[in-house]
Write a structure and sequence with these properties.
The complex is a heterotrimer of chains A (290), B (591) and C (403). Chain A is an all-alpha fold and 290 residues long. Chain A has 12 helices and 2 strands, in the order H-H-H-H-E-E-H-H-H-H-H-H-H-H. Chain A is globular. Classes of the chains: A mainly alpha (290), B alpha/beta (591), C alpha/beta (403). Chains in contact: A-B, A-C, B-C. Chains A and B meet through helix 4, helix 9 and helix 11 of A and helix 5, helix 13 and helix 15 of B.
């Protein structure tokens, strides 16, 4: 029984860690720029597909692939904000909201369709074979350890980045008061663009790690976006540690639901949890902590 | 309907095409049928979004539920009419029940939660196999394909068309009647709406249920025509957001928005489908993106469209169609406020040991206060001393943690916020909160429509509102949107709106700051007039003592949530503690 | 006012015209070309199975007309007329497919239909064939219930869910050691569930006891829960009734968690699956395989080659191509373009039909009685192990990679 629970916990943490990684970028972008990016999960899928193709063709190390993709996604995110999203801020709030919905949904349609046309719609992954460690009856893949380690390191790095660096402080300043930050010499437009860029960069990393474990296809990103929304609400908007905990919790809950009950109900866990939490704490869990 | 010639022509043309499409051939029938269904879903979504300002990303679930209920009734051989009725009623019920948890949420949280409803219902449909037959889906028996010698799609088509027509005219009706004004108030500011006497939850619930009903009717038409449903066809994320995109594309909150959006996007998709192979979704995506980027208010709000003669009429906002501009009466005409005779000995407001805390922070601490009828009471205190919180307690924005508040014979504790104006309390906000996308006239008319006695009819309220506007000096801006006013005008508007609540007690929160001395004097005159002419009791929070000193009978000073002085102006201003609070020490010491 | 009205009417007419270029109704049953109307899920969720079929169909039209010279019309003095396809992308949405078939029936006025694919499309579209009394040979609509509606104009090419794994369970009678137990893992999907429900009693009749069954949602990503249940149940056979794409993480995690069994059977063990995970030793079913020659296989292979499709990757391509071949045979049997006669011929009891994978009949409802080839992945490629007549190798038992 202990072995079973240990195995389930490992899988749950892994799944949850990946969920959290998807949510990080979204949380950062939403928390700072207040933009609901509907194309977020689709970007992850595109990252995963690109990684899988690069791996198949050049046999590059996944870490190198991640570096390349992060650079590309950073540029993409930056340009996306400067040319598509930022101009909407000049509109009244009502039009700005609708505008961002239309722009990000439009992007979602464009990138998933282009990816399907170029790379084909079949799901893709990075088929790396690593050997496994066996402790008693518990089996851990080395790849999974890499993924878990990657997630942990990445979370810590991101956390330090936001806490310690000038950019991180600027981001937090802009989040709290764009006007105040402006007065202090921070150009909120630049900070916003850089945040969107970083958010997209994180998605690239998530995409590579994701495709090491699960296949992705160009149409499959939207349910990840929904899942990520759930996580950032559970964890508190803009709160990375909260998102990590929420993601891990969701992963564990899904894995245990499918073992103890039935796997066809596992996806319901996150949705029901989200609705219950929102009903009990209408402003998200973060409000409770305050 | 006061539509222009273009609108009537467009409506006639669209309706004529819709009526004759089935005669052009089965292809046109199915093609237009999908657009009819999409229009109903888009339009019923827009009631909650365009009118009430809530983004319900999961609206499509009602379509799916309607489709399922209809199909289950149909395979159990219930008459089609009964199936439709069941679909509508059941879905309306679901909408009503979901309103309870969902409307606890605001803004983006509401959008998140409703988005999660889609996968939830998809999952329920797939997993509740005993009821829904799971992923097998429900095929409708083939014997119903031909009804009275005609393809059942024709019947389904005309039912869908009828629902469309109903949805269109309901949109006009909603925008024009009192219910619609309640929605508009909610869209702008829920708290201010409640202060104006609108009980907002039932309004939102009814709108949700109404939207659900229409989406369900569209949903019921779908399996009737296509004979098969499964969870992904009616709850899939890929289909669910398209009607919303259509409404946004046309222009949400506009009479023609959902209709034009549906026609354009629907036709475009179909044209792409049959004309070119590949990149259809990309092209739809590019169009969506460009409209979002350059015309985020929707196509009909774009300057090019509004500037085009003829077409411009389609982009008119609802309030631009209203056109109720009754003859202007004479200046100095009396307001429709009951003239009360003041009994100066009667206590109208009693606060007894009222306390309010936010977490560990006590904002109002054991305040006991009496206000006599017809009194003008000044309330002062440093920033954070609890003045506005006290106002918020009296106007039921907050419920006190201890103590009781009595007003005019009513115990206010536990009372709903919207009944506060009904018992006779009106208020303004420190930072004005008018309904910003409504006109001055509409702003003032709203409390008149939602008075405790049932309120005035729309036109009467709009006519009456003119008098209040004139009183507040806003006559020239009557048909301008509130967000076009300057600060002073916004304050005046709020003042007029508060008066339109026919208050016995008026709570005025810092109107003088930022005004010129002449403007302040005008305000002071208004306040005095309210008391002298209409017998209104006033509590005025103000920092500018010179303004207060012109009119108040008595001054109450708050510091850190407690009353530190209470008495005539001169007395209070000489009080040691007050001076210390305000000037950091007594004047004597400094002298 | 009148000019605006005129302009509006003109605009509307132009709009409708743009959506639907009309074509003339045919009157001569011997004139060519014969038009086949079809939709293909070239985009959308199902396109993972069929994104190359539009190109394939274009090539088919060209190659068939070139290699076979067209359809031989015996009723028209034996002259050969070319075929021509009218085809659209249904975007994997059933309602879109319906409107497109209506369009092909009334605006494009195609002569005959082939398609659509998938059961979700088959239900609503089958009515249209009935309404216009135009026969269609559908492909990959495998749900028996579509054919139980009592419709006259439909036939369909797909594995019969009833006989899907018939060859597999037959072949299990001859293996040593004998499997005694099976664990079913089922994708929550119409076809996958039908296959599972039909084969469960067949297995039990053979003395293979069910020791566990689990249905999973297509969005499931982590299968640890199911796999731990499998490990506890220790089945001899693990039978995965699932589409290929959604089961990648399942098989991958089974490998990672060292699941053991005599055999793992996957009803869609395809090339796309094999590229993502180690499928070595897994058994599965194939509709047809390039190595199996038969009627029309020269044309089919040429088309596949030019369209860059491997049957192992696109498992259902066989069904698609066969629907074309069957429709062509039906026209040739009748000898001229006569929809009623073609519909009758297609549903004639006991009639034999040819396909590259062999001969078959339709059942009473119009669904093909095609029994799949059972294969095992050996050295990265499928080896046919049953039926014995077409076998290209023998089963390795117990499966070497699951020990």
């Amino acid at each position: 029984m202990t072995a079973i629970i240990a195995q389930l916990v490992i899988s749950g943490l892994l799944l949850g860690g990946l969920y959290a990684l998807v949510a990080f970028g979204l949380s950062l972008i939403y928390g700072v720029v207040r933009i609901l990016n509907f194309a977020h999960g689709t970007l992850l899928a595109i990252g995963g597909i690109a990684a899988s193709i690069i791996f198949a063709v050049y046999k590059l190390n996944p870490v190198l692939i991640a570096v390349v993709l992060v650079l590309v996604f950073l540029v993409f995110g930056y340009l996306m904000h400067i040319y598509l999203l930022d101009p909407l801020k000049k509109r009244n709030p009502f039009e700005a909201t609708i505008g961002t919905v239309l722009v990000t949904v439009g992007l979602l349609l464009i990138i998933s369709d282009l990816a399907a046309e170029i790379a084909g719609p079949t799901p893709k992954n990075i088929p790396l074979e690593f050997h496994a460690y066996i402790v008693g009856e518990v089996i851990i893949q080395r790849a999974e350890l890499y993924i878990l380690g990657g997630i942990t390191l990445f979370t810590i790095a991101l956390h330090l980045f936001l806490k310690k660096t000038w950019f991180g402080r600027a981001i937090r300043a802009v989040t709290q008061s764009p006007l105040g930050a402006n007065i202090c010499g921070i150009r909120s437009k630049q900070i916003h663009a850089q945040t969107v860029a970083v958010g997209c960069g994180i998605v690239a990393i998530a995409g590579v790690l994701w495709s090491l474990k699960f296949p992705v296809d160009p149409y499959g990103g939207f349910d990840l976006t929904v899942r990520a929304f759930t996580i950032i609400i559970l964890g508190g908007i803009g709160n990375l540690v909260g998102a990590l905990l929420a993601g891990l919790f969701l992963g564990l809950a899904e894995v245990f639901t499918s073992f103890l009950w039935a796997s066809d109900w596992a996806p319901a866990v996150s949705i029901v949890l989200l609705l219950v939490i929102l009903v009990v704490f209408p402003r998200g869990l973060a409000s409770v902590r305050k | 309907m006061t539509g222009s010639a273009t609108e009537k022509l467009a409506l006639a043309a669209i309706f004529a095409i819709a009526v004759i499409a089935p005669f052009l051939g089965a292809y046109y029938l199915t093609f237009v049928f999908t657009m009819l269904i999409a229009y109903v879903v888009a339009q019923s979504w827009d009631w909650l979004h365009g009118e009430a300002g809530y983004v319900n990303l999961g609206h499509y679930i009602y379509f799916g539920i309607g489709a399922y209920v209809f199909s289950l009734g149909y395979i159990n051989e219930l008459p089609v009419v009964v199936c439709f009725a069941f679909a509508a009623l059941f879905t309306a019920g679901v909408g009503a029940i979901l309103s309870y948890p969902l409307f606890r949420l605001r803004g983006d949280y509401f959008a998140f939660a409703t988005l999660a409803l889609l996968p939830l219902f998809d999952l329920l449909a797939a997993n509740l196999k005993g009821i829904t037959k799971g992923t097998d889906g429900i095929p409708l028996p083939p014997k119903g394909v031909i009804v009275m010698g005609v393809d059942v799609k024709v019947f389904s088509y005309y039912v869908a068309l009828a629902v469309c027509v109903a949805a269109f005219f309901l949109t006009i009706w909603l925008a024009r009647n009192k219910f619609g004004f309640a929605l508009k108030a909610i869209r702008n500011d829920e708290q201010a709406a409640e202060i104006c006497g609108i009980r907002i939850f039932p309004v939102k619930l009814k709108t949700m249920a109404l939207g659900a009903t229409f989406a369900a009717l569209a949903g019921a038409c779908y399996p009737w025509a296509y004979r098969y449903i499964d969870p992904t066809t009616v709850f899939g994320l890929n289909v669910a957001l398209i009607p919303i995109a259509m409404a946004l594309l046309g222009g949400t909150g506009l009479l023609w928005g959902a209709l034009i959006g549906t026609i354009l996007l629907g036709t475009m998709q179909q044209m792409l489908l049959v004309q070119i192979s590949g990149f259809q979704a990309t092209i739809v995506g590019i169009v969506t993106l460009l409209i979002g980027r350059y015309m985020p208010g929707g196509l009909l709000r774009a300057r090019i469209v509004r500037g085009t003669p003829g077409l411009g009429a389609l982009g008119k906002e609802h309030h631009e169609r209203l056109g109720v501009r009754p003859a202007v009466g004479a200046a100095g005409e009396a307001l429709a406020i009951e003239r009360r005779t003041i009994d100066p000995d009667r206590t109208i407001l009693t606060c007894n040991g009222v306390t309010m805390a936010f977490g560990g922070n006590i904002a109002v601490n054991n305040v006991t206060l009496e206000v006599k009828e017809g009194e003008i009471l000044g309330l002062i205190g440093p920033n954070g001393s609890g003045k506005t919180t006290l106002f918020n307690l009296i106007s039921k924005i907050y419920e006190p943690v201890a103590g009781e508040i009595r007003f005019d014979g009513h115990l206010l504790n536990g009372l709903r916020r919207d009944t506060v104006s009904h018992v006779g309390i009106g208020r303004t906000y420190q930072i004005p909160r008018p309904f910003s996308d409504l006109t001055v006239q509409e702003n003032i008319a709203i409390p008149l429509m939602f008075r405790g006695d049932g309120g005035l009819a729309r036109d009467a309220a709009l006519a009456e509102a003119i008098k209040f506007a004139r009183f507040a000096g806003l006559e020239a801006r009557l048909f301008d949107r509130a967000d076009a006013l300057n600060l002073q005008q916004r304050k005046a508007l709020e003042f007029a709106r508060a008066l339109a609540c026919r208050p016995k007690l008026l709570l005025v929160d810092e109107v003088a700051s930022g005004l010129t001395p002449a403007e302040v004097r005008a305000f002071v005159d208004h306040i005095r007039e309210m008391r002298d002419k209409y017998g209104v009791t006033v509590i005025w929070v103000e920092h500018i003592i010179s303004a207060l000193s012109q009119v108040v009978d008595r001054l109450v000073v708050l510091e850190q949530g407690s009353v530190i002085a209470d008495g005539p102006l001169r007395e209070v201003m000489a009080d040691e503690r007050v001076l210390r609070t305000y000037f950091g020490g007594s004047l004597k010491e400094h002298a | 006012m009148r000019t605006t009205l005129f302009a509006a009417a003109l605009g509307a007419a132009a709009l409708l015209g743009a959506i639907a270029p009309a074509s003339a109704q045919r009157t001569d049953p011997c004139a060519g070309p014969i038009t086949f109307g079809t939709t293909i899920s070239a985009t959308g969720t199902n396109s993972t199975l069929s994104d190359r079929w539009m190109k394939m169909t274009e090539i088919f039209e060209e190659e068939f007309n070139r290699m076979a010279g067209g359809v031989a019309l015996s009723g028209c003095g034996g002259k050969k007329v070319p075929i021509k396809f009218v085809m659209y992308d249904d975007q994997s949405v059933p309602a879109t497919a319906v409107s497109l078939y209506e369009k092909m029936a009334t605006v494009d006025r195609v002569d005959l239909f082939v398609g659509p694919d998938w059961s979700t499309h088959g239900f609503p579209v089958s009515q249209i064939f009935e309404k216009y009394k135009t026969p269609s040979v559908m492909s990959n609509v495998a749900t028996p219930r579509v054919y139980e509606q009592g419709f006259k104009y439909i036939t369909g090419l797909a594995f019969h869910a009833n006989t899907w794994s018939q060859n597999y369970f037959e072949s299990l009678k001859n293996v040593n050691p004998q499997p005694k137990s099976v664990f079913w893992i089922v994708h929550d999907n119409l076809i996958a569930k039908t296959v599972y429900e039909i084969h469960k009693p067949i297995a039990e009749k053979q003395g293979i006891k069910t020791v566990g069954e689990e249905i999973f949602a297509p969005t499931t990503r982590d299968f640890t829960g199911i796999i731990l249940k499998i490990r506890a149940a220790k089945p001899d056979i693990i039978y995965i009734s699932s589409f290929d794409a959604v089961s990648v993480p399942l098989v991958q995690q089974m490998r990672q968690l060292r699941v053991t069994a005599m055999d793992v059977h996957h009803i869609m063990a395809t090339g796309s699956l094999a590229r993502q995970i180690n499928l070595e030793g897994v058994t599965g079913e194939l509709y047809w395989h390039e190595g199996i020659k038969g009627p029309y296989s020269d044309i089919a292979l040429k088309v596949l080659e030019r369209a860059e499709i491997k049957l192992f990757d696109y498992l259902w391509t066989g069904g698609r191509l066969d629907s074309y071949f069957v429709m062509i045979q039906a026209i040739e049997k009748v000898g001229k373009l006569d929809r009623e006669a073609i519909a009758t011929a297609l549903r004639a009891p006991g009639a034999k039909w040819k396909r590259p994978g062999g001969e078959f009949e339709f059942d009473a409802g119009g669904l093909s009685k095609i029994v799949a080839f059972t294969h095992q992945i050996q050295n990265g490629a499928p080896v046919i192990i049953a039926p014995a007549a077409q076998a290209t190798g023998t089963i390795k038992w117990p499966s070497p990679t699951w020990q």
